[in-house]
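Running co-folding for coenzyme A.
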Amino acid sequence: MPRLLTLSDIPGCMLLKDAAGWNQTEQDWRNLLAAAPEGCFGIDCEGRLAASASAACFGRDLAWIGMVLTDPAYRGRGFARLLMERCLESLEGRGVAWAKLDATDMGYPLYRKLGFEDECAVERWARPPGPVPDPPDPAQFRPWEVADWRVLDCQAFGADRSSLLPLLAFEDAAAVPGLGYAMGRPGTRAAYFGPCVATSGEAARDLLSRFLSLHSHETVFWDLLPHNQAALSLAHRFGFERRRELIRMARSVAARPAEFLHNDAYVFAIAGFEYG
Ligand SMILES: CC(C)(COP(=O)(O)OP(=O)(O)OC[C@H]1O[C@@H](n2cnc3c(N)ncnc32)[C@H](O)[C@@H]1OP(=O)(O)O)[C@@H](O)C(=O)NCCC(=O)NCCS
């Protein structure tokens, strides 16, 4: 039966994500547990953690479901379905209006059965190590502060992420005053660029170029919404290659919720498949 995950489950969580070849670190799990202390669930089988799922709430407007993982040895026993049902039940209990997620090919059939509908494509792009042409002037960047970006981030994403973003900003966050911000964090397979929210392609370019200059010796992953043409052209220009496509899906949780408004033209990098 599903139970709440705690910090002591992190080694088991890392085994689950390693089996799927994902990029999250132990710190990512700590962040998720801090952002969603009542929304991270697991199922034990034969004395070990066999499956996981998380639902991080952004106020009552939206929850993001992620880390839906079942150990390969325990797949096909209904664990992912049980965990998804537990997540949705907890969101209903908390009066959340909408749930969204980024679906892999393996997860997609389950989410369709649970009433999620396609919203758009979301893609993983990767850049191999290498020099960055024309790095920007460091003087134009400022430290990231939640108070400066709360309104713009909310317009872009559609819900208030001010409880999550400070957790993600611990490593590498910068802003171009008035125009946009970007964050990055380590991964087990590659450095991760995102989230990045900006009102102009030039600001996003400078923030990306800054991040790549600091991580030119590493592979960098960047998850973007390909209908944001400005993001797509930056990915080509900076030598990224498309690796995977997922489907962003949405489902109402409350009865007849208000339309969920967001502006993907400002979203240059998502925060992660597990956060949106
Ligand atoms: C996707 C995943 C979590 C499913 O876990 P699972 O515990 O085996 O799933 P369940 O046994 O609960 O199956 C759930 C439902 O999806 C269906 N399903 C599962 N995998 C499927 C597949 N590859 N193709 C078609 N249907 C599938 C099952 O038939 C089941 O339907 P039912 O409840 O109507 O009988 C697991 O395959 C996994 O960890 N994959 C790698 C990581 C991943 O991609 N996660 C999804 C992230 S969005």
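Result summary
The radius of gyration is 18 Å.
The chain has a mean pLDDT of 97.
Job closed.
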